[in-house]
Amino acid sequence: MAQPGKTKKRAKHVASLELPPGTFRRFISELSHPDKLLYLACALFAAIALWLVTGAWNPPMQYRPGYVPPSEIHPRVQFSVLDPLATAKAERDAENEAKSVYKNEPARLDQLRARLQSIIVQLTTAKQFDVEVERLWNEFFPIADDEVAPVGPMEREEQFQKLKALFARENMLNAFEQSIANALKPFASRGIMSPEQLELKQGQAASIIVVTSGPQDNKQIISQNDVLKAQVFESIRKNLKIELDSLAKGEDISFLVEAVDYWVDKNLPGTLVFDRVATTKEREDAIAAVEPVMHIYSTKDAVVLPGEPLDATGIELLHAEHRAYIDQRSFFSKTIYSLAILGMYYALGALCAIYLVFKCPSILKDLNEYLLFLVPTCATIALGYWFDDRWQAELIPAMILAMTVSIVYRQEFALLVTACVSLAIVLTSGTSLVAFVTITATCSAATLSMSRIRSRNKLIFVGLWAGVVAFTTKYGVSIVSGQPATVALLQAAAWQGVYAVGAGFLMTGLLPFVEKAYGILTDISLLELGDAAHPLLQKLAQRAPGTYNHSITVASIAESAADSIGANGLLVRVGAYFHDIGKMMKPEYFVENQNASDNRHEGLNPAISTLVIIAHVKDGADLARQNRLPRAIIDFIEQHHGTTLVEYFYRVASAKVEANPDEREVDETIYRYPGPKPQTKEAAVLMICDAVESACRTLVEPTASRIEALVEELSMKRLLDGQFDECGLTLRELRQIQSSVTKSLTAVYHGRVKYPSSQPA
């Protein structure tokens, strides 16, 4: 029977032999962490927002202008579209059939009657047939011509006398006035149209609208022939004959009937006035009342014929067919399609999340960092959907995102994100495989050209190169997919090239904002930041010239060492410029700024001296934040000593304890820097170079072998102290750094030929 103690030991041993969790288990464990629920909620919100913005409950329209269909396109459902030609014809017919509007002014007939009555009164009351009476009486007779025989003066005077005799009868004048009024009365309400008032278009209509003004406008529809002056006069003539004959009472008054008939014919006015404004409104109302004429397409009809590029008319027809298809889709179909789109979003998101978990975990540890990645990615998909629908310019936001991700994170991550975003844009906007290949190839070309950005022209050249790739890819893939080689295809490919070049120019302007938003440094920013005229460097040179000289030397050595292992040498150089700026607060406590006879640490407790020395890290970080230095530079300040031991004062304290056994044992943690340890290879390079450069100054004869031994000793000491545990530095890279630092220091501290002293003359 096994003993309990041995059983426990065996269980512990078995537990210690268990394999570490696999990739999938680590991924699930990472996602199941409570802090990650907020990240998942943000991802869900982003997916729903994209679903709403892109209208992802319905399939997108698949055709774009310029596409050449290889075969006839038949509608999926029956639909109807407006027939503009038939509708325009119906509107023209309605306009032509619309009635013209005339204003009736019956007062003109009253004026005619009053004038006739006035003339008759003047004639019948005249005492003799003088010149004035003759002039008035002549108005009732036509002028003699080839058809009308002249009437002699004697005959006219005789008729005048008969007129006076006729109207000498009692109440004859009133009866005559009443007869004239009765003859004209039927035409006062309908109106009389003179030839000059007849509108040209009115000839196509059979009737008109007559409006008689009054307390309430009287509006009536009257046949045009019933109001024409020539037709109306015939009716008036009959009425006059009937009314005047009733006054004869056995006498022959035909002379009066003929005279009045001639006078009325000559002076009869038109009472209808064409109302252009009202007529225009009547025609507009008639046009507005026309129902649009629709052309119906069945599923057997060909909407678009093959072999011809889709123009605006074809695209409009296909849009109408697509709207009809969407309208007939059921709620169940929309739900299934929505779930498929949301699933696609989450699948692509999961693909990026897996990469982030294992390659860029820092993004998933800070919500702000996560949102800075999630929001631009979703915005790119939304903009790509919107740009494609209008200008087929989805390449612009996709390429800007690709360049941003490659600058902020890694190039391989930018390639992954670009592929996912391109696929999402293509599926939501309904574009073809050609668009997916074009976007992916162009963004990949731009991403792979973004290794180092040492000038702002670089982004423009990246855009030009991407433009060439976009043009050739669009044209070539379109030909392979069956599109004919036409001028329209060349133009479409050229536009893709223009969009890529435009994205390069846009990124050039956006770069400073990207750097500020993400807190990253490009080579351009580093070159600007590393200017010797920077205020902090100027103050360092004035207050602590020894430290400034040390920083410049370390920067040169560290840049070469970083380049030797493929790290960012420029970043290390600029970080080295600022890594010791905290020493300017108390420069006299650091050996490089002291005179041989001036040592402020004499008489101080080693622990106090250590606190003063260590404080330059915190002081430097505070100065950097006050002067708005980037986070990457602050990291160099905080990490360049890591958690190393301040050996000099630690040994002094240890010696005191050994000399005086009553002293308390030295606590090593008091004499260590607070850290953190170097988190990047660049910070590790700076740590080594900073320590070695300072130590080299103490060498009496800095020969190559001594420098090499010193570099080996100090770098291995930090390796064994665990200072490189968190930066991913390998032993091979450490060896390369040692070799580079040794060469650089040997060049700085090389031996010199001693010249013989001058002999006195």
UniProtKB/TrEMBL annotation:
Keywords: Membrane, Transmembrane, Transmembrane helix. InterPro entries: HD/PDEase_dom, HD_domain, HDIG_dom, Metal-dep_PHydrolase_7TM_extra, Metal-dep_PHydrolase_7TM_intra, PgpH_phosphodiesterase. The chain crosses the membrane at residues 37-57, 336-358, 370-387, 413-439, 459-481, 493-514. SMART domains: HDc (SM00471). Pfam families: 7TM-7TMR_HD, 7TMR-HDED, HD. Residues 547-695 form the HD domain. This is Phosphodiesterase. It comes from Bremerella volcania. The lineage of its organism: Bacteria, Pseudomonadati, Planctomycetota, Planctomycetia, Pirellulales.
